[in-house]
Write a structure and sequence with these properties.
Largest sheet: 5 strands, antiparallel
Helix content: 40-55%
Order of helices and strands: EEHEEEHHHHHH
Distance between the termini: 27 Å
Number of strands: 5
Oligomer: single chain
């Protein structure tokens, strides 16, 4: 999972104006980086121009996904990531960046601003922080922990039954369980036969 580009634009009547951008192109060859950065900047502006006000979209371009959010006030942001990166985390990042940007940069500067004149330094920090979606986003972190717990639980049940014994056989052999408990287990097993856990 990787984020390559994060940029903020102002969507004008005919053209998108780049206000600030950050790139992480370390996975590309040194000699390709400037061309790739130009392509990503061009693609980001084109996507903003073609996205309607007040909407979000995800556009697939080769092995990359471009996520865009154009607010009703025409302030826009684009993040370019690989296809494995979670879409929800991308839109969380775009929301956060646009909210922060609109608080720090006056809206009068949006239509005529440029990367050199806009004083907003947090894009590089956000791009670096969100490289690992599990660390940057609380929901993704919780989901990863749940998946890990599920794997541990699954492994525990497998190790419990690793000698080839089935739980049904163990219940049938049990002398401790009363006949009513065994009947309840068999009835519950029949009722839940359509639903398997793990």
């Amino acid at each position: 999972m990787k984020l390559y580009s994060l940029s903020v634009h102002h969507k004008g009547a005919t053209k998108a104006n780049l206000l600030k951008s950050a790139h992480d192109l370390s996975s590309f060859s040194f000699f390709q980086r400037s061309s790739i950065q130009e392509f990503m900047t061009f693609t980001s502006a084109l996507i903003v121009e073609r996205t309607s006000q007040g909407s979000r979209a995800s556009i697939k371009e080769q092995e990359y996904l471009c996520h865009v959010y154009v607010r009703n006030d025409n302030l826009s942001a684009v993040v370019i990531a690989d296809t494995e990166y979670p879409q929800r985390v991308c839109f969380t990042l775009l929301d956060k960046v646009l909210d922060e940007f609109s608080r720090q940069v006056d809206s009068i500067d949006w239509p005529s601003g440029s990367p050199e004149t806009i004083n907003y330094k947090a894009l590089d920090i956000h791009l670096a922080k969100y490289q690992n979606p599990r660390e940057a986003d609380a929901m993704t972190k919780v989901q990863a922990e749940l998946d890990e717990t599920k794997i541990i639980l699954h492994n525990t049940m497998e190790s419990l039954l690793e000698r080839g014994e089935k739980l049904d056989d163990l219940v049938a052999k049990s002398e401790v369980l009363g006949t009513q408990s065994k009947a309840f287990y068999k009835t519950a097993r029949k009722q839940n036969s359509c639903c398997e856990i793990m």
